[in-house]
TrEMBL record:
Species of origin: Elaeophora elaphi
Name of protein: NRF domain-containing protein
Transmembrane helix keyword on record: yes
InterPro entries: O2_lipid_transport_reg (IPR052728)
Transmembrane segments: 83-110, 131-153, 173-194, 206-229, 272-291, 298-316, 351-368, 377-401, 407-431, 452-472, 484-508
PANTHER family to which the protein is assigned, alphabetical: NOSE RESISTANT-TO-FLUOXETINE PROTEIN N-TERMINAL DOMAIN-CONTAINING PROTEIN (PTHR11161:SF14), O-ACYLTRANSFERASE (PTHR11161)
Record carries keyword Transmembrane helix: yes
Alphabetic keyword roster: Membrane, Transmembrane, Transmembrane helix
Lineage: superkingdom: Eukaryota
């Protein structure tokens, strides 16, 4: 890279490129029994006018082992990136001006929005949900870091050696936490809005509110990834052509929240499928809550039947296709094609992730009225939940370390582990709500500091990928991984992702949301306070019910 920089003259404008080679491996490591190809990156300084496709064609004339090529970002900015940067600077100027003339443009005041975003005031009594949301998304982000870092390690075998340690397994098998996130988000939303759905107009207002919370920041992230992300750094391993291309080609599928109906290559960021799932489930949730007031038994029957139908569907697919039961590293490497099939067929699809949503919906009815659950069962519940939780967390440990596991067990685990974890998480919230003594953990989860962080959990999940990729690929050499270095990177990614999420909430989401509601309602923006996913202007007619 440095030589390429020195070679740049008026006569030669070069840029650093890498050719990815797969060399057949004749020997196998003791912890990696399969003989796979060796992945080697060959660097060269090519003319800036050469495209990666032309470079790989040239390389394949020399060696058949050349697979792909990537080059550093061109130094010249395309017009589209310049336009987006100018628009971003203009918007920031508007926000700054609105801050200094607060009386005129109070909806976009940065201090006002910052105070609202960082407020620890809570408008409901389901406080442990917020702690669970923050802890859950932090675990997901930390576990994702161990996956994203793999292409940037010089000792890749370190990660596969950790597969054999049981302490690492909860971070290896972690995707069920996403279902827990879906379940408690559905539970909290149901509890907050179920007393507000008197007419269909209330449903429309809540749809608009949710759209204003999600869409502006989502569009901004997609535009930023498309036009500016590749300009943030440079270096021999700073190459994200595939990521940028995905964002450019699939932007409309992401904005319409339908990217999870297509293949995994049709999403901008890996976390985009969760955004689509949350919106799709929210579209179903409000009519279900509205109809449950009139057809309670029928709605419950449909929800329970749908849970069993989804479980049976997953069991059938796992039994017939013999896919991986979930996404995790194993001692016996699984081909990327198998993972891709699992992602496209089950992992991102709403009909396969619906049980978590339906469990959160059903649990919301337990919080209303008197409990019909026997006290003896409530006393035994902590032990039952502990056993179920340990099964979900460590049930695939023998499979991960290379033991032969019957396909029937893998199919059962794949079909049940996500609904079981959603049930465990919702049960913890319910037990705390009923003031059952289940340890000091849930007292910690009710800590007020979790309140502002819980508002941005889905943004944190989404942007943690580009944040972690920035930390890894902006280095000028591969990273030598140790337990402590990975832990520090995971903590840094969590902190930086939360910081960026707050900045986006203050500078993008809240100003746009406040402006729209100011235009729709002849009220001051002081009354438009962001409250746990429900805009307070929509609560104005239901304050008595909430109290």
């Amino acid at each position: 890279l440095l030589l390429c920089f020195k070679f740049r003259t008026n006569a030669f404008d070069g840029r650093y490129c890498r050719i990815f080679l797969e060399i057949p491996d004749a020997q196998a490591s003791g912890n990696c029994p399969q003989s796979n190809t060796l992945s080697i990156h060959f660097g060269l300084c090519a003319p800036s006018t050469c495209t990666p496709q032309e470079i790989i064609q040239l390389a394949q004339m020399v060696t058949p082992h050349a697979i792909s090529a990537g080059c550093e970002t061109l130094h010249s900015w395309p017009l589209s990136s310049q336009i987006f940067l100018i628009a971003l600077v203009f918007w920031l100027c508007v926000l700054i001006i609105g801050t200094f003339i607060d009386e005129i443009v109070q909806c976009i005041s940065i201090p006002r929005n910052a105070n609202m975003a960082l407020s620890t005031k809570r408008s409901h009594k389901y406080h442990s949900i917020q702690g669970l949301q923050v802890i859950t998304v932090s675990v997901i982000v930390a576990a994702n870091c161990f996956i994203y870092i793999l292409p940037y390690l010089e000792n890749v075998l370190f990660t596969y050696e950790n597969v054999f340690t049981w302490q690492f397994h909860p971070f290896n098998n972690f995707t069920y936490h996403i279902d827990g996130l879906i379940a408690i988000d559905t539970l909290l939303t149901s509890l907050l809005v179920q007393n507000m759905l008197e007419t269909t107009d209330d449903i429309k207002k809540l749809y608009l509110n949710r759209l204003l919370q999600v869409l502006p920041v989502f569009i901004f992230i997609i535009l930023f990834m498309t036009f500016l992300y590749e300009r943030l750094s440079s270096g021999p391993i700073w190459m994200h052509d595939d990521l940028i291309t995905r964002c450019k080609d699939s932007w409309w599928k992401n904005i319409l929240f339908i990217n999870n109906f297509f293949s995994s290559g049709q999403t901008c960021l890996d976390g985009g499928y969760l955004y689509s799932l949350i919106i799709q489930f929210f579209l179903l949730l409000l009519p279900m809550l509205y109809l449950s007031k009139r057809f309670y038994t029928a709605i419950l029957a449909v929800a329970v039947s749908s849970i069993f139908a989804s479980i049976i569907y997953i069991f059938y697919e796992m039994s017939t296709t013999k896919m991986s039961p979930t996404l995790l590293l194993t001692a016996n490497p699984i081909s990327p094609e198998i993972y891709k099939t699992y992602i496209d067929l089950l992992y991102t699809k709403p009909w396969a992730r619906a049980p978590a949503f339906l469990i959160g919906f059903l649990f919301s009815f337990l919080f209303v009225g008197q409990s019909t659950i026997y006290n003896e069962l409530l006393l035994a519940a902590p032990l039952i939940l502990l056993i179920v939780g340990l099964f979900v967390i460590f049930g695939l440990y023998p499979y991960a370390i290379g033991n032969s596991i019957p396909q029937i067990f893998l199919a059962i685990y794949s079909a049940l582990h996500r609904p079981l974890w959603a049930f465990v998480i919702c049960s913890l919230v319910y037990l705390r709500y009923r003031n059952r003594n289940i340890g000091r953990l849930l007292h910690f989860l009710e800590w007020r500091i979790f309140s502002p962080f819980a508002k941005n959990i889905f943004v944190v999940f989404l942007i943690s990928e580009p944040v972690s990729l920035y930390l890894f690929s902006s280095l000028h050499r591969p990273l030598h991984a140790t337990v402590w270095s990975l832990l520090n990177i995971a903590i840094g990614t969590i902190i930086l992702s939360n910081f960026v999420a707050f900045v986006l909430d203050i500078l993008i989401t809240m100003p746009i949301q406040n402006i729209v509601f100011e235009l729709l309602k002849d009220k001051k923006c002081d009354g438009l306070i962001h409250t746990e996913g429900v805009h307070s202007s929509l609560l104005s007619d239901s304050k008595k019910d909430i109290k």
